[in-house]
Amino acid sequence: MTWSGLPICLPLLLLLLLIGSTASQQLNISALPSGGPTPTSIVLKQSQNTFVQWVLSLLPQRPAVATETATVATLSSSATAPTETPAESTTTTTQAPTTTRKATTPAPPTLSPPRNCSDCVCGVANIQKRIVGGQETEVHQYPWVAMLLYGGRFYCAGSLLNDQFLLTASHCVYGFRKERISVRLLEHDRKMSHLQKIDRKVSEVITHPKYNARNYDNDIAIIKLDEPVEFNEVLHPVCMPTPGRSFKGETGVVTGWGAIKVGGPTSDTLQEVQVPILSQDDCRKSRYGNKITDNMLCGGYDEGGKDSCQGDSGGPLHIVPNGTREFQIAGVVSWGEGCAKAGYPGVYARVNRYGTWIKNLTKQACLCHQETKKIK
């Protein structure tokens, strides 16, 4: 099937249309009149708050009203203006919620002696057959793709970087209680029981210190599992992207359990879709204009038709360098206008802008090496 979707944070909120919520009207940020009375920054900030409320509404028993109000107030007061400093700066410009760690906290020390790490290779899909055009993946084809659950309900995705840490979007964890977030690996069909699936609790959530809830700049976060996972012939992590590479003109592969159309239900099975990656200039020539920062990456067709969508937030956008079978995580599904709309490509956090930040925070984990041999 064709996977028409948008990159995600905002799309999740479009589900509110099904229940007549007027809050979903705040998501149409790119369609707002340029001279309208509501500043775009306010709309985006409200969208982050609405995302939190939407996830809470999924729970069988929602927290007390007073607790929810406090969470939203924290989000509203902690959003910061865009910054000109580099993405990997450690200067704290945002007041992090209680479930995140401030940038001034020292990086975790290297274990001494280190754990007995097994030899493993990152980024190799578990099947060489490629599915093109937005269809279901093979079972465990992308074993590093993780499902995030809040109170036991699926709401976002992430990518396994090593045996103890995942990468996801800040908007998927910002303002949420880490005690209610859990991670599921080796899931494929949400309606079927898989003996191989692995569930972990979350011991720590680290949002990027410069995450901006008003424009989704630096929409990237790290999740630490409560206990490491063990790699085997099925389970292995994704590879980190090549530093400094723009990925312009390359083909991106997005995976997730998100909706296959705007306002539709999320998918039961893991899906994939291929999209061309745009240059920054071309992305800014889209209808987004200057909303696109250097920390963002765009992927999609001018005519639309293929994209990520609501429910795909936090999941990976992969690229495979020529002559290899190595899947690198080039982007994290972040936001967009609608799903697969013409003139509105999917927007992702550009992962290779955060290499040093990620390495410093995950140095205690067991890493898998990249495959050195080339393929014909």
From TrEMBL:
Pfam families: Trypsin. It is a single-pass type II membrane protein. Keywords: Disulfide bond, Hydrolase, Protease, Secreted, Serine protease, Signal, Signal-anchor, Transmembrane. Residues 76-114 are annotated as: Disordered. PROSITE patterns: TRYPSIN_DOM (PS50240), TRYPSIN_HIS (PS00134), TRYPSIN_SER (PS00135). Residues 76-105 have a biased composition (Low complexity). The keyword Disulfide bond applies. This is Trypsin.
